[in-house]
Amino acid sequence: MKRKNLIVLLWVSIGTALFFFLFFTDEKTLHNFILSFAISALYSFFLGIGNGLLNDFLNKKIPWSEATTKRAVISIISILVANFILVYLCNYINFVIFQKAATPAEFFSGKYNFMNWFMVNIALLISAFLHAKGFMEELKKTSKKEVVEQKLIATSANAQFESLKNQLDPHFLFNSLNVLSSLIDENPKQAQKFTASMSKIYRYVLEQKDKELVTVEDEIEFAKTYCDLLKTRFEDSVDFIFEVNKEDYRRYVVPLSLQLLLENCIKHNFATSSKPLIIKIFSENDILCIENNLQEREQMKESAGIGLANIVQRYSLLTKRNVFIERSEDYFKVKLPVLSVKPNTISTKIDNTDKAYEKAQKRVKEIKGFYGNLISYCIVIPFLIIVNLVTSPKNIWFFFPMLGWGIGLAAHAMNVFAIGKNWEERKIRKILEKQNKQ
Fold it and tell me: What was the pLDDT predicted at 158?
C-alpha cells in the first residue's frame, strides 16, 4: 500500500481509540488508552491493509475497464470471504489475546457470534467504501485516457488528410504541364486553347483542394471541363459519356476524385481513332461509377501510386464505406461511395472529442455523486449502529435508517448505472446497431 494510505489508517486508529477511550471507558488510564489504540489499530490496519491489497491485486488481474461484470462478481465473492476471515482473526486477537475476555473454546463456541456478525457487516461497509473509491479512481483514469487517445487519433487523422490533399496540387500541375509540353510540339494552336482551359481548371483545383467533400454536381461540372481539355489533345481517340442521376447532384464525394480517375484511365490505356478509349461516368444506386474499356499499354512506367490510392485513403478517413474496384478482360471500373449527408469530417473530430470529454466529465460527476452517497452511508450507518447498541441494546432501531437509506441508495445506483438519462441513448444505439447488421 501507499504511504499516504498507511498514514490515513494511523489517524483512523488514533481517532477511534480516542472516541472509545473518552466515551466508553470508565477508567481513564494510560494502560486503557494504549489498549484502546492497540485494538483500534488492529482492526484498522488488518481490515484496511487486507482490503487494500485485495483491491490492488484485483485491479492488476481484472481491471474494471476491461471486464466490469466479471470484476464485480469476483469482488463481491472475494470481499465476503476475505472480510469474514479478517474479522474472525481480529476478534480472536482482541477478545482472547488482548482483553483475555474469553478462552479459545469459548470464542468458537458461539458466544461471540453476534459480535462477529456485527463486525463482519462493519468490515463489509468499509470494504465497499474502499472498492468504490478504487472503481471511481480507475474510471477517471480510463475516461481521461480514452479522451487523450481520441484527440491523438483525430489530430493524426487530420494531419494525414491534409497530407493527402496537398498531394493533389503539385500532382495535377505536373501532369498538366506534361500534356502541355507534348501539345506545344504537336499542335501549337491546341496548346494555346489547352493553356486557357488549364487556367480555368487549375482555379477549381485551388478552390476545392482544401475541402473534404464537394457536391457531385460541382465534381461533374469540373470533370466535363477536364474532359474537354483532354479532348483538345486526343480528339477522336477518347470519348466520354456522362449518365449521372440528377438526384445525386446534391450528394457528396471527395474533391478531384473524378479528375484523378480520368487521369488514370488516360495514363494506363492507349487510345487511337480506330480504337478509341471510352470512359463512362454513371450512377449506380448510391455509387458513382467510372468505367473504361480496357486497352492497357504494353510498357508502362511504374506508377507513383498517388491517384487511386489517394482517393481510397481519403474516403477511409471520412466514412466506413469503401471504394470498390472491378476489373475484367474487357473493362476497368471504380465505384465511389456517394454520401447523402456530410459525415463528421476530420476538421470537426477534435471538436466532437471535446464534446465527448465534456460528456465524460458529466458522467464521472454522476458516478462520483453516487459513490459520495455510498461513502456517507458506509460512515453514518455504522456510527448509528454503535450508538444504538451502546445506548439501548434492547431497542434495535438502526434497521430503519439503514433500510430506508439503503433503498434510496439502490434507487440512486439504478438511476446512474441502469435507468439514468443515458439509458434511452443506449437503447437507441443498440437498435441502430442491430439494423445496420441486418
Answer: 53
